[in-house]
Amino acid sequence: MDIIISSSVDEPIYEQIVSQIKKTIISGQLKGGEPLPSMRALAAELRVSLITTKRAYEELEKSGYIETFTGKGSFVKSKKIESLREEYQIQIEKDVTLAVEKAKISGVSLEELVELVRLLYKGGN
């Protein structure tokens, strides 16, 4: 799993881990039922404490992205992925609606707005 930790940002390390794992799940890179690395293996790979990866996994489990089975490990929660994508779709629609309203108020043309979205999408994270 490709997780990049940065000590130069204000976000705690466990939150960096959580957000990057969430992105891989939402994007479909990690599929439902797929195992995650053990907490120890991930801690060693990222060169962080076991407590940090444990906290990240607990947060992911609490928010419904993964499930953990004693003695077996942690796995991407199968049923949750589609509902998470739907939640993101609804939020995107709200955000785009707000952007369109602001564009209309400020006189930004449809073409300018589309170009802005295109640039942000290509250059975004």
How does this model look, in words?
Strand 1 and strand 2 form a beta hairpin. The longest helix is centred in the last third of the chain and has 27 residues. The chain is mainly alpha-helical and 125 residues long. The chain is built from five helices and two strands, in the order αααββαα.
What's the arrangement of secondary structure elements?
Layout: H1 13-26, H2 39-46, H3 50-62, E1 66-69, E2 73-76, H4 80-106, H5 110-123
Antiparallel strand pairs: 1-2
Describe the structure in brief.
The protein has 125 residues and is mainly alpha-helical. It has helices at residues 13-26, 39-46, 50-62, 80-106, 110-123, and strands at residues 66-69, 73-76. It is elongated and about 60 Å long.
For the report, how would you describe the main beta sheet? 2 strands, antiparallel
Give the spatial strand order of the biggest sheet.
1-2
Strand proportion: 5-15%
Morphology call: elongated
Mean pLDDT: 91
**Helical percentage:** 55-70%
Which terms summarize this structure?
about 120 residues; two-stranded antiparallel ribbon; 5 helices; 2 strands
